[in-house]
Amino acid sequence: MKKETVKKLSLISAIAVAASALSACGGSGAETETTPTTTATMKEEQAAVVEQVEVEDAPLENGTLKFLSFWVINSTEGKPVPVALQLFQTKYVGKVEYIPTTWDTRYDDLATMVLGGNSPDMFSATDLDLFPGKVAAGMFDPLDDYLDFDSDQWPDGARQLNEVHSVGGKHYIGCVSTSTGMVMIYNKRTIEKNGLDDLAELAYNNEWTWDKFKEMCYAYSDKESEKYAVGGWWYEPGMILSTGVPVIGMENGTIVNNLMDPDLERVQNLFLEMKNAEIMYPYAEYNWTVHPEWISEGKTLFYPIGKWALYEPDLSAYGEPDEIMFVPTPRDEQADAWYLTAHGGVDAYALCKGAQNPEAVAAYIKCLLVQVNDESVQSVNEQQLREEYHWTDEMIEMDRYITELTNAHPVVDFYPAVNNDVTDLLSNAIKDASYNGTDWYSTRESLNEAVQVNVDAMNETLKSLG
Prior knowledge:
Number of helices: 18
CATH superfamily of the largest domain: Periplasmic binding protein-like II
Distance between the termini: 45 Å
Helix content: 25-40%
Strand content: 5-15%
Shape: globular
């Protein structure tokens, strides 16, 4: 039974992810000059639809919005203007000035600008790694003076994420849409050739589970023939969060260390089992490089990766256009719901500390909310997906379904967001069973005390913020 109820949030998230994925800026750090505005435009008939949409508090007295980012909202040259940006430009008479940075240096650059009294206005919160650590470090201000977080405009999943990124009633991100940041790409020809079940139908029928995933992986894999179940770098975080238990969670404004949780032990034991069975891609044997093209060649069954990969100019690594498809992370049968990671799949922004134009940040977020909630602009988003990103009807339908699942139960892991020490301790350790065959008991015992010390310290800081 296919899900038909969600027809808009997935499209919004898709366009937002496409903009960030295709528009990454290079460079070693923030620069004094902003990047030039591209000449991307919106088709006349699409612009006419957007023109009819109403927004509140427009126009702005000061429409200049300074955005520190490693990607540009306006997409790449030759790509269409996203609906929210069109609204911001036409209704608020707004203009986005880009201050380029890199993913690696974005927080260092922000800290330098804040300390220098030259703060940008807006910062992307899509990675969900700024709260609580970067807030505690004095990089961000709450948005509550400029946005009504009690409004019914916020979708359910976005509202959940806004609340979990708040303390003392103050919200530090404005999340407007929620979808998973990780999908499992596969080639339909490979599935059919190997006599495996239709993955899309399994997903729609709630039968895409850990057990079914394992069954298909074992049936397909053959190390001697160089056929492996899973490749890429994104598999482990998505599977961990499918339990509904993050490594580091947040409950009622308190950070929680879950390293000793039995659900984490279950998923790590799954990683170890599949590693020892030699059905997973052996990174070390291939010099720690990955091969997405093996999906097209029928040598890898699944390639878990961020959904941004489906907006690359060339998707031939995964197959011909009518062969490419994806499903979400499989459902954990022992969990009480189908949990999907929200990291990288949300459209969310934060207000920089000392921002010169917070009203413009709020106005842009309001444009995003209009884009999510107004039925009249959904045809524009869907048309852009088909024409500019070459998505098929099947892909769009699956994205709707995945968004529905994520919107109901978005899961966030806070281990990248507490502080650098916790990030360094856990980033590789949670993949050690999968990559190196290390048992989870040994890993967690070696890390738990140090992680808990950092968690306790940050909880004390949160009390002062609250």
